[in-house]
Description:
This protein is α/β, with parallel strands linked by helices.
Amino acid sequence: MRLFDTMSREVKDLLPADGKTFRFYCCGPTVYGPAHIGNFRTFVLQDVFRRTLELSGLPALHVRNLTDLDDKTIRDSQAAGKSLEEFTKFWRDRFHEDCQKLNMLPPHIEPSAVGHIPHQIRMIEELIEKGHAYQSEDGSVYYRVTSFSDYGRLSRLDQRELREGASGAVADDEYEKDSVADFALWKARREEDGDNYWDSPWGEGRPGWHLECSAMCREYLGETFDLHSGGVDLVFPHHENEIAQSEACTGHTMAHHWFHLTHLLVDGGKMAKSAGNFYTVDQLGEAGFSPAELRYVLISAHYRQPLNFVAKDEEGNESFPALAGARQALQRIARLSAALQEKAGIAEIPAFEELKKIDDRGSFQGAFDALADDLNTPESLGKVFSAMKALDLDSLDEAAAKTEFHGLQVALAALGLELPDLEAEKAEAPAEIQELAQQRWSAKQDKNWAEADRLRDEVTAAGWTIKDTKEGFELIPSA
RNA sequence: GGCGAGGUAGCCAAGUGGUAAGGCCGGGCUCUGCAAAAGCUCUAUCGCGGGUUCGAUUCCCGCCCUCGCCUCCA
């Protein structure tokens, strides 16, 4: 598998350093509110990445943290009058529910910041010892950026000016630092932190945000690991600071590969609560769209391109045309898949573990290859449809159908797409509707077209659509 | 001001130095009493102006425009 590396700015092969397991870390969510669909673009694509790795025969060790200790979780838990633990547990559970709905494989290890305070303190001690950090008068500890000559390599900071206070915002603890670029490793206890403080050699306080990832990477993946991932916004300063902390501490390269995911836009602009275009999985569910449909949209653009999520149609109504389109597309795949399955005489769709063993992917090999080549999800989807169109179902014997069915399932498993249940679409209509539809069918058989049409209108008015088939009819709830 | 990404059909979105995947929408056809559904099918010369080249949407230069980051942020 090949993937673009932010550090070297080139597409590189992915090879596990230990020759066996590909070990990678993803910066997870801050659990202080519901994750939005932009967050999930990142997490879903990381999930496609992992699925592709595993299906290509490379075992993975996936670590993704939960940020449960930072300014926002403390601030909002206080505002809610809850303990930090109770508050973050609520949002952590919610995040996990959303992940499950979106068919994401759970990470193998999911550490949290609060659970690793001692690890972080130990790292600070090391950094002070090695001259990379200093304590300020109030008991905070800062990282001295100038002590790490490689600082800025990932974000190419050395090639640009550090514009101090570009946003006009100036941290209130700035006077404590030797340089504005220095960042906090340990924050001295403050009034507004409430009960959220821990003992340390520098007094009571709490670790800085950037440190948790460094500490947990080291704990679970070692001093050097294969890949580190996150949203583009984390390149600077978060990942830059992680590198500075970890590499200054260990003296070794932190990660061999940096995988960054470009943000989602909504209707051409940045998603923001203030803009009213901040969507969650639940919200879209309430609007009548399934998580699978959302997932389809989230993977419909390459991860290094901005993806424009269209929420409003041309009339400006919030009708989510992108999701409606995804529904049509998924149903087409589902019909073809069902036809292949029947032709192949296969009872159950093979589980993920079983799909790992399938190496003849038939016509769908190209769809898988597109993912292995820099995780090109849109090309992969294109190949799925192209392969579908090229298939001549009638000419396939059972063995060929089986190969094609398995190939399709591997491609879908890599993309993490769950197909809609076509049978479930045919919901049970109320008895009176069934009766009307049956009467209409009889009228139709008698070629009493006027009566048949009249009855169909009645059924339609009641919110159901009649689909005639060769043998009879089906009732579908109207959209 | 600095850094970066991008402008491909109505919308979303791949890709390529030799006239452009795929999805949605829309049109047509088949099927059908009609309709729906389904299947098939049609629809772009790639922001503008130069340059390099036998040939550029794809490389180079300039311009216009959009978006993101530089502050917590996936």
